[in-house]
Structure formats: C-alpha cells, structure tokens
Design goal:
It contains two helices and 28 strands. The radius of gyration is 19 Å and the shape is globular. The protein is mostly beta strands. It starts with 7 loop residues before the first strand and ends with a strand. The strands form eight sheets. Strands 12-13-14-15-28-24-23-18-21 form a nine-stranded antiparallel β-sheet, with no helix packed on it. The model has no long low-confidence stretch (mean pLDDT 97). The longest helix is centred in the first third of the chain and has 6 residues. It has one domain: Beta-galactosidase, Chain A, domain 5 (Distorted Sandwich), CATH 2.70.98.
Length: 348
C-alpha cells in the first residue's frame, strides 16, 4: 500500500497508514480508520511473500466498501436480538442494522471511527485509543479504549484490548480480518484445513441469534476437533449450515481457566502456510465469507467471491446480554476489560 493513499481527514481527525515489520520480512499494515488491518504479508513454503487478508488499496474504498474488512469491532461485536438489552432495570434500544437485529456496534461502530495513535519507534507496535462517549450508538457509559497491535519476531500479530467505563455497560470487542492463506483474491478457502479447540457451539435460529442451547459438536458438521477441510461438510443438509448459508457460528472454546489457549489453527496445503489463533476469550466466531458475492472489488482489482475468505473472531458469545447463562459481557466502573488475541503465522 502507498501511505499517501491513506492520508486524509474524517470528522477533522487525521487518518494514516502504519507499517509493522520484523526481521523475517513479515509486514502488517494498519490504518487508524477503524483500526483496520490493511495487509498481512507472510511467506509460503518457497519463501514467496503474499498478502493473506482481504482489503482495499486506498482509504476511499475502505470508507465506501465492506465495513468489516480487517476491522476492530465494537462496542458489541456480533449480534444482539432486536437490538434490545436491559441493564440495572433500564431497557436500551440499539440500531437494528442486520435485519431486525443489532450487529457489530451499530450504524457507526468502532470500525468506522478514527482512532488516536501512538506508533512505536522500532515499528513493532501500534497503540490505538478512543473514547466512546456515553450514548454513542445508544450504549451507556463513557468507555475509554486502548488497543495495541504488536508484531513479534516469531511472526505473531498480537492484539491486546483494554477498556474502562464510568457507568455500567456492555462490551464485546473483536478483530475481523478476512483470511485466505493462498493469498487474497486467490480462489476459495474450502481446501484450508481447520482445527477448533471446542467441544460445543451455540446453535442459532434463522436470524443467526443463539437459541440459548449449548450443543455438543459430536457427530455434526461443527466438529473440528480433528483437522478437517473447511469445505468437506459445508454443503451438508444441516439446519445450522442452512441458517448461516455456511459456517457463521460461535464455538465455545475449551478454556476453563480463562488463560491464553490455542483456539484454532488453519493449514493451507498448496502454500504450506499455517496460522494459529490464541486467546483468553470464551468464544470464537468462525465465518466462511458466505455473503461475499464479487461486489467487493479489492486489491489489484480482485473481486472477492463467495467463500474466498474465512474469519476467526475471538470474543464473547452473541446476544449474551439477553442470555443470562452465557458468560457475562457487563463491565462495571470498578473493573478493567482486558483480553488478548494472537494470530501466529508459520510454515508447515
């Protein structure tokens, strides 16, 4: 990317492009517009470097195009049924921007705001901060946010989230890169081999809202406890796959101690690229780009077709504010919201 193509102002705040690098030649480019990861360039088994995330070549296309490519998502990632939740006896009505439901923070989520920046001199770390004001998208509380992107010498992109509030609120942040380990724009991801560290998932209704059930993956297309090609069962006549038009579900990670664990891994046989996802979150949304349809024209004029990317979004569960038996997403004024997600790249 050219930095000049990202230099502009939105709401009188400066947008820029930042490049993280390490000694292995790996680079990660991030814009403070929505905290979006613009590119992740990593080698294959032959030492050829390619960009493995979908995106655009300039800021104008990020502003007008798919709002979630590479984005930092909140105040509440994923869906809330009918956009309603209650806190301390008060009901809140959020935007219904996904059919009848609320998705990824609303009309102007964190993916569409300009974050303040502090760029590390050694070009390995970018710190983003943002004050999400009380009433923004009708969420309660002034929420002070800090997100740190760090690129290690072990080819790990670590994303650390921290937040505090001045009144009781809800929060659920995630990262939304669309990955293709063959290289962005280079076909579908159905041959990618996936492992998910989960015995159960949260089934949904036809609107992708959890029913409240915790269901074992045993004997279903949702079972990725053994490495399986993404496309092997994606066309099965399974109600959940039909509801999601493919995979678009929350898996309950095996993480009883709330420590950082391996959530998932993905291997692409042609390139030999291997990606691991590590987190201390209780859930992970796995999405297979089911609603990409070629209308998003990205880098190099690539038309991003259906299932040309996958997302692995570590987070709390969808609709948790309305599902009291799910892990709580309530943040109190005397608490600190803090978690980590790491995407590690290697060759296998």
């Amino acid at each position: 990317m050219r930095k000049i193509d990202f230099n502009t102002r939105v709401n009188n705040k400066e947008i820029q492009l930042f490049t993280l690098t390490n000694h292995n030649g790996v680079t990660v480019e991030i814009t403070n517009y929505g905290g979006k990861v613009v590119s992740i360039i990593v080698p294959d088994k032959n030492g050829e470097f390619k960009d493995v995330v979908l995106g655009y070549e300039n800021i104008d296309e990020y502003i007008s195009g798919n709002p979630y490519f590479g984005a930092l998502v909140g105040r509440y990632a994923n869906r809330i049924q009918k956009g309603k939740f209650s806190l301390l006896g008060k009901e809140y009505q959020l935007a219904r921007n996904n059919g009848e439901n609320h998705l990824h923070g609303g009309i102007v989520g964190y993916n569409d705001v300009v974050w303040d920046t502090n760029f590390d001199k050694d070009k390995s770390k970018l710190v983003l901060t943002y004050l999400s004001k009380d009433g923004e998208e009708n969420y309660p509380g002034n929420l002070s946010l800090k997100v740190v992107y760090t690129l290690s010498e072990d080819n790990e992109l670590k994303i650390s989230y921290d937040a505090t509030t001045d009144q009781t609120t809800i929060i659920n942040l995630t990262h939304h890169s669309f990955f293709n380990l063959k290289g962005e724009g280079n076909g579908d991801i159905l041959d990618h081999e996936l492992y998910i560290n989960a015995d159960a998932f949260t089934p949904t209704n036809a609107d992708s809202i959890p029913t409240g059930e915790i269901k074992n993956v045993e004997g279903s297309p949702m079972d990725f406890r053994e490495v399986t090609a993404i496309g092997k069962r994606i066309e099965n006549k399974d109600e959940q796959l039909q509801f999601g038009n493919g995979y678009d579900h929350n898996w309950i990670l095996k993480n009883d101690n709330k420590s950082i664990v391996l959530a998932a891994s993905v291997y692409e046989p042609e390139s030999g690229r291997f990606m691991e996802v590590w987190t201390d979150q209780p859930g992970m949304q796995f999405y297979t780009g089911n609603f990409l349809d070629g209308s998003d024209v990205g880098k190099g004029g690539n038309k991003y077709q259906r299932r040309s990317a996958f997302c692995l979004e570590t987070q709390h569960f969808p609709d948790s504010p309305n599902q009291l038996h799910f892990p709580s997403t309530i943040l109190e004024p005397n608490e600190n919201y803090s978690y980590t997600c790491t995407y590690k790249f290697s060759i296998k």
